[in-house]
Amino acid sequence: MKRVIATLLAILGCSLIGAGTATAQGGPGDAGIYERTLPNGLKVVVVEDRAVPVVQTAVWYGFGSLQETPGKTGLAHALEHMMFRGTPEISAGGLDDIVARMGAQMNGQTDYDYTQFYFVMPSDKIDVTLFTEADRMQHASLRAADWAIERNAVLNELDGDASSPFFNLLSRVRAAAFPGQPAGRTPIGRRADVANATVADIRKYYNEWYAPNNATLVIAGDVSHDVAFAKAQKYFGAIPSRTLPARNERSPVPAHGQRVEAEFPFPFEVVDLAYAIPGDKEPGEPAVSTIATLLENQRAPFYRAGDRNQRRYAIARRPSQRVSGTESGTSCRRSAVRLSIDARQYVGPRHRSRSRVRRKAHDHRGARLLGRLDRRDRRFSRLHLRNRR
Fold this sequence. Notes:
Layout: H1 7-16, E1 33-37, E2 43-48, E3 54-61, H2 75-82, H3 92-102, E4 105-110, E5 115-122, H4 126-139, H5 144-162, H6 165-177, H7 191-196, H8 199-209, E6 215-221, H9 225-236, E7 258-262, E8 268-277, H10 285-296, H11 301-317, E9 322-330, E10 337-346, E11 353-357, H12 375-384
């Protein structure tokens, strides 16, 4: 499915999968955020924001590609697709029609630790989406005939990603960073596993992981928290909890000093510096996430300083070349994630992308992250931002 998601809900979902129970949040900036856990284990988070008469709902399941078994990879993503194929109560075409009539939007996303589904709709239509989510939490059709069709859509998505030079490069970097581990592959899995999968394989994951005690419901927008909690109880309260499989909680072991080089037919050089950093449940994560945000914020001093230096270098060495941008980002993961700092430069007719994977100490303190780049790292960055003729 298309990777589209509201930032607020992404942050909440990452932090609340596996979080504790509370009635209200009391930290800085938490005004208007409320949390409650239903008797069946469903965590419900409400974010009151009356700016516009719109509500967004998102259901986050604590199941992603890291919990897949060998030979059955890519099926967390396949299950995400199949969840839009309807239930005995609402067909796939019926769901599309409902969304269109409400003037709403819907989508889903699969990652390493979670799968999430969201709706954005006028605030007076919230009952429709909550009924829909509760219905497919327990009654997804998962028919073989639908999988025969949807499999092609999933494979097309896999092929499309594989044909993207930038995605291909970052996939190789991840494989080098976490060799021989589930964290070393992307959440879309291996093509052969998806091609050979049956609907029974997908249903097995659904029956094991799609349960209220493995889910977080986030409701944000023009809604009262008391009303939202009551509606959550109304639609989800009767769904029974399940005994969940043992979760793979082992932290990935990052490699160090690895280097990846690749050549692709596009007129840019890309430098990707990858670091092993704390996951969402580990000390130091908030500081590192803040650093990652500041690095690509064009109003932040980090971005301005880096952009200014890169442009000076490009002009001095080759006036026809220019740095087109820098990016940084982390993935939503419970442990041992990867911070990537990417720089792209237009280089004309000769094309090369290079990347290096380096391991940094696991107990980063955020503000010291960039300061720990030694002189050799900086020489490497300058070296690979040049066009090689």
